[in-house]
Amino acid sequence: MAIGALLGEQHSFMHDLESFFWVLFWICIHYNEPGKDIGPTEFDSWNYENDDKLVSSKKGEIADEEDFLKKADKSFTSYYRPLIPWVNRLRRKVFPNGGRWKRPEPELYSWVTEILREARKDLNVVADGRVS
Predict the structure, then answer these.
(1) Residue 33: its pLDDT value, please?
(2) Which of 2, 55, 90, 119 could form a cystine bridge with 15, CB 3.0-4.6 A?
(3) Which residues form the Fungal-type protein kinase domain (predicted)?
(4) Could you tell me which of 4, 40, 8 has the C-alpha nearest to residue 22?
(5) Domain limits, the chain
């Protein structure tokens, strides 16, 4: 769920794009290939935290690029590790300067789509069918 949605903001397409980011993040840390759940991770508490705590947790994950990359390297399963640079590029667009958008950004959808198109060309990503 998008941080803004957790804070009660009126829904926008930008919340949907952020939610996509979080779903992708979740898949990369919980599955070692499609359909192969690795079991509990440190992020499972997100399923039970109240909205305020979850907002803080999510902000902490995306605020600093270096911290995000270290956490991704530690937490992404080996299967999804090749996606780290691409998920980070999404993070940069969805969370500019490590924070949330304060105004609508009509170009966000195009930016996200372009990052995903580029990821499909990365031989490290397309190996073993991670992205099709």
Answers:
(1) 84
(2) 2
(3) 1-28
(4) 4
(5) 3-129
